[in-house]
Amino acid sequence: MKKFGVLVVDDSSFMRRCVSKLIEKDCQFFILGIARNGADAIEKVQRLKPDLVTMDIEMPEMDGLAALEIIMKNYPVPVVMISKHTDKETESTIKALELGAADFFLKEDLIGEDITNEIEKDFLYRIRTIAEKKSNIAKESIGKKVEEENRTTKSLPMHKVDLVAIGCSTGGPSALQAILPRFPKDFNVPIIVMQHMPPGFTKSLAERFNTLCNLNVKEIEDGEIIEAGNIYIAPSGFQTTINRRQDGTAIFNVSDKLVKDILYKPSINVTLKSLAPIYKDKLLSVILTGMGNDGLEGCKLVKHYEGHVIAEAEESCVVYGMPKVVFEGGYADTQVPLSYIYEQIMIHI
């Protein structure tokens, strides 16, 4: 069994102990070292060569964002951010994901006596999966020849689509950054994004992408009409479905009362299942990097209504979970690395 060495970075000795104690509950991990600020972290990443780093955001001397940028540029290693649920740190967390952080967790979920077995298992499973996939941190260095050899495509569509739905989880914000800013101002098909995130983070995600994209990017509001020229981010903590009025307009329904037993909010399955009967063969579903199997049942229904599905290939995924189950289920028309996703979307437009 492979062992993974972890560097724990936090200016609080209490948080370092909490995170270290939690990590060591998994026998595949051992604490390789600790660091008290960003500068200390950079030196220890270079010297100790950890398999995984947990990084606090707010620290003295050098904060986590500054350290992360240097580490990803010079000593690429999977970095998981440990964030507080505040407006400032929410924005910083989104920036960290842009810079290449593999995932993030809320401090309040990881400390104290109230932490549940489910939270512990989820945390350990996610960081173990990320550590096992560390070779993919340098995913954009994959040669074009390798990408060509790994492209899997069925037949190209015979007609155009009216809506693009993108689902993603772990590694999603970074993957979205490689796709969404490329759409031109005159792109005439609405885009809906379902990104797994804790409540409160998708608003900052939408605001950040609105500064990067040619199209208008916004968090979905209940009762809002779907219009071309917009990229819509499904709000975390809620389920987003779509209804079509008698006049043909499609509107969003955002609720926390729908399908309460569903783990993910937003759920890709829930949204796709509402889209598929409405858009039928005019729907394009894109499943990007992420853990678990959310999107599988949704893509099954998309194909039932003769819609189209693109899945991200394993070599560019931070976590090859959601695209894998869709591809292995036989529901993907195309499976390509991240750098080809935009190209494949535009074939359908």
Automatic annotation (TrEMBL):
UniProt entry keywords in alphabetical sequence: Chemotaxis, Cytoplasm, Hydrolase, Phosphoprotein
Kindly identify the residues recorded as the active site: 169, 196, 294
Asked if the record carries the keyword Kinase, the reply is no
So what does this thing catalyse?
Answer: [protein]-L-glutamate 5-O-methyl ester + H2O = L-glutamyl-[protein] + methanol + H(+); L-glutaminyl-[protein] + H2O = L-glutamyl-[protein] + NH4(+)
The molecular function GO annotations come to: protein-glutamate methylesterase activity
What is the top EC class of this enzyme, as a single word?
Answer: hydrolase
The record describes its post-translational modification as: Phosphorylated by CheA. Phosphorylation of the N-terminal regulatory domain activates the methylesterase activity.
Q: What is its EC number?
A: 3.1.1.61, 3.5.1.44
Q: Which residue numbers delimit the CheB-type methylesterase domain?
A: 157-349
Q: Where in the cell is it found?
A: Cytoplasm
Taxonomically, which superkingdom?
A: Bacteria
Q: Which InterPro entries match?
A: CheB-like (IPR008248), CheB_C (IPR035909), CheY-like_superfamily (IPR011006), Sig_transdc_resp-reg_Me-estase (IPR000673), Sig_transdc_resp-reg_receiver (IPR001789)
Q: Which residues carry this modification: 4-aspartylphosphate?
A: 56
Entry annotated with the keyword Hydrolase: yes
Q: Where is the Response regulatory domain?
A: 5-122
- Family as reported in the entry's similarity comment: Belongs to the CheB family.
What is the annotated role of this protein in its UniProt record?
Answer: Involved in chemotaxis. Part of a chemotaxis signal transduction system that modulates chemotaxis in response to various stimuli. Catalyzes the demethylation of specific methylglutamate residues introduced into the chemoreceptors (methyl-accepting chemotaxis proteins or MCP) by CheR. Also mediates the irreversible deamidation of specific glutamine residues to glutamic acid. May play the central regulatory role in sporulation. It may be an element of the effector pathway responsible for the activation of sporulation genes in response to nutritional stress. Spo0A may act in concert with spo0H (a sigma factor) to control the expression of some genes that are critical to the sporulation process.
- Record text about domains: Contains a C-terminal catalytic domain, and an N-terminal region which modulates catalytic activity.
Official protein name in the record: Protein-glutamate methylesterase/protein-glutamine glutaminase
Q: Which organism is it from?
A: Clostridium tanneri
The protein's gene is named cheB
